[in-house]
Specification:
By secondary structure, the protein is mainly α. The relative contact order is 0.07. The longest helix is centred in the last third of the chain and has 17 residues. The chain is elongated. Helix 3 packs antiparallel against helix 4, helix 8 runs parallel beside helix 10 and helix 10 packs antiparallel against helix 11. The protein has 12 helices and no strands.
């Protein structure tokens, strides 16, 4: 797609190496919602341009087919960009409307690993920082126990995140979450900077529970 004059001017600005996510939010705040401009930025296949596109998309246009196309496009990026884009789409668009939340909730067994990642990441975020959890924890934890070992790494990360939030904020399930981490050993040998939270479930849960006591 050939960029319009407006799109090209902004594209040249955000393509600079020193452009940050905060800069994109400032630009998006000025633009507000502009689906046509979003599609122009998306067509560039540029990582920063696509992040800006997500911010200015019109949520009314986020049909199931359109979201599937976004998912297919995102899957072509490298791993880091791919995960950042799909998580960015979830946080800035998909969680903002009931119809797209319904899409997320339907993705547990999607053929797309990115959509499965978002299903699990969304469930974890519902429990994050002590929010009252939905009454589906037993179902989710049973699914994680059965599926996580064989899942793709990007989905494993989201399942692990959800298991951590369950273990931290729902004491009745804590021992199961710790035992899961010990059994699978995911992230056990991952280097962790001093003072940072590990991804290894037993360590993650223990550290955050201790913080909640203070």
């Amino acid at each position: 797609m050939k960029l319009s004059s407006k799109a090209n001017t902004i594209y040249q600005q955000i393509s600079k190496r020193d452009c940050k996510l905060g800069d994109l939010r400032v630009i998006a705040k000025e633009i507000k919602k502009d689906q046509n401009l979003a599609l122009e930025f998306w067509s560039t296949e540029n990582f920063m341009a696509r992040q800006l596109a997500i911010l200015i998309m019109d949520k009314k246009m986020l049909t199931s087919d359109f979201v599937n196309q976004l998912d297919s496009d995102i899957a072509k990026h490298n791993e880091d960009e791919r995960n950042q884009l799909i998580d960015w789409l979830m946080a800035n668009q998909l969680m903002k409307d009931k119809k797209t939340i319904a899409l997320i909730e339907s993705w547990e067994n999607s053929s797309s690993s990115l959509q499965r990642r978002i299903f699990w990441y969304y469930q974890g975020r519902l429990r994050w920082v002590g929010q009252t959890p939905p009454p589906n924890t037993e179902y989710l934890l049973s699914g994680i126990e059965k599926k996580m070992e064989k899942e793709s790494p990007d989905v494993q990360w989201a399942m692990n995140f959800t298991a951590a939030q369950i273990g931290i904020f729902e004491p009745q399930f804590r021992s199961r979450c710790v035992a899961l981490g010990e059994r699978l050993g995911l992230y056990k040998d991952e280097f962790v900077h001093k003072g940072c939270t590990p991804n290894y479930l037993p360590g993650w849960i223990a550290m955050q529970v201790e913080k909640l006591k203070k």
